[in-house]
Design a protein that fits this description.
Two copies of one chain form a homodimer. By secondary structure, chain A is of the alpha+beta class. Chain A has eight helices and 17 strands. Chain A has helices spanning about 15-20, 40-55, 60-70, 115-120, 145-150, 200-210, 220-225, 255-275, and strands spanning about 1-5, 5-10, 10-15, 25-30, 35, 75-85, 100-110, 120-125, 160-165, 170-175, 175-180, 185-190, 215-220, 220, 230-235, 240-245, 250. In chain A, the strands form two sheets. In chain A, strands 8, 9, 10, 11, 12, 13, 14, 15, 16 and 17 form a ten-stranded mixed β-sheet that branches. Chain A is globular and about 55 Å long. Chain A starts with a strand and ends with a helix. The interface between A and B is large, with 57 and 57 residues. Strand 3 of chain A pairs antiparallel with strand 3 of chain B.
């Protein structure tokens, strides 16, 4: 099911600036029993992105209605919400009156094997480097060629590729954020000049703090990451996937990762029973 | 008129990766008397972009047929050609079989006043900084949020904004390349970590060299640009526009700019009488 500005459609106007410039934002939201998980956090990030890109944030009641309409029939799925600046001209200048496009698409839940969660995934360092751009860092905008190019570096031999930026700092996975456990501290790369601040990344930081685990957002080198005690990646669909191998080095699914998986499961269960609509 | 993969249409499949990731390339081509100007050069750049982004370059005969079909009825206009990686999945991974989308749209020629060409334009330095990304520098891809944000800094009080990158080098205009004449030398910013290598930029470099004008592609600071004898911007639609003011400093439409405008007019007239189709 795809809703475009509330209407059932499968195509978009060719004049949409999402197509011409990647001029938009997106959210990828897990659906369980017809309900969107961590929806409040996704909409908060979307709103931040809108402020950064100067795209008017839509009427939230309308947005919630449309999201609910698309998600309510799904037992388990993924909602991709794209918000573009809407249609307008041939040039970069935006029209005086903006009519952002709300695109809400329901996808089937990906069929990831259960052992990615329990036994961990195989990863490597991509050659593709993230550029430096403080203006766009953090938000989930639709300028994603770096991720597309990085993802083209492998097929099925890994489950995720980790990306460094031009400064040779490890930033994130192509579709996930990275966490490093070392000597009883939880580290995750600071997202200041490259990378996306994932909704799940923020939730994990919050639940780690709530449970008195020491947490640091900082710049991480490849060597530091390789010397981790435990490693995992996260996003809104996979939750937490432990990393069992990186660049031919092996890592255990350690105690801290297991703790965070348990805390997250609990937090998520509470989220699902609450209802923001 | 809009042709999508050879068919008259006004909408695109919502699954197209152009929309999701800006996963594509574009060319903006001037049309005069039904004929595309510098078409050979535009297709060459598109091909380079395809190689860089690993998008299959389309059958050129087919592409030329479609471009001709859209341009032939236009007395004066603009063809925007977008080539995306085509439809595919929810994730960054591309489908095993790629079917790039060819989008060819004919727009009316913009109604720029003639005095922009003869008397010059008013410009300023944008606050928006271009990021650093050697992987994507040079090609005309559809990840254009930087330009969109820069263009939102002004309305009609200027005709173009010049952009610096994170290293504080002056790189280009939001929709044009920049040329600086100083002490009998033609300078243009080196496009290595930021910016687009415009088709018109390359043509101007070529005709300057053919006419024994000394030319340098190098990194330029704001101070160097401000101390220019003459300044101009270029793109495929405007050709050359002299800059008459930048950051409250005035510049003449000088001899070298006039020379290059004349050389370009001659070169363009020869291009129009040749025919690559």
């Amino acid at each position: 099911m795809i809703l475009i500005n509330g209407k059932l459609k499968k195509t978009l106007e060719i004049t949409d600036r999402g197509l011409h410039y990647g001029d938009g934002l997106f959210e990828t939201i897990e659906v369980i029993h017809g309900q969107c998980v961590f929806l409040r956090q996704h909409l908060a990030r979307l709103k931040t992105g809108c402020q950064r890109l100067k795209i008017p944030y839509p009427d939230e009641t309308l947005l919630l209605d449309e999201i609910t309409c698309a998600s309510k029939t799904s037992e388990q799925g993924v909602i991709k919400l794209i918000l573009t600046r809407g249609s307008g001209g041939r040039g970069y200048r935006q029209p005086d009156e903006l009519n952002p496009s709300r695109i809400i698409a329901l996808y089937p839940y990906p069929d990831y094997p259960e052992n990615f969660k329990t036994q961990g995934i195989q990863t490597f360092f991509c050659n593709t480097r993230l550029g430096l751009n403080p203006l766009l860092a953090g938000i989930k905008h639709n300028n994603r060629l770096e991720q597309v190019l990085a993802r083209s570096e492998w097929q099925d031999e890994f489950q995720e590729g980790l990306m460094l930026n031009l400064n040779e700092h490890v930033i994130e996975g192509t579709m996930s954020n990275l966490f490093v456990i070392k000597e009883q501290i939880v580290y995750t790369p600071a997202i200041t000049v490259s990378g996306i601040k994932g909704v799940m990344r923020q939730i994990i930081l919050n639940i780690a703090r709530q449970n008195q685990l020491p947490v640091r957002e900082t710049l991480l080198t490849m060597d530091f990451v390789l010397q981790a005690d435990e490693l995992f990646v996260s996003n809104s669909i996979i939750g937490i996937w432990p990393i069992k191998s990186l660049a031919n080095k092996s890592y255990p699914v350690g105690l801290w990762t297991q703790k965070l998986i348990a805390f997250l499961a609990e937090y998520k269960a509470r989220d699902i029973t609450s209802d923001i609509t």
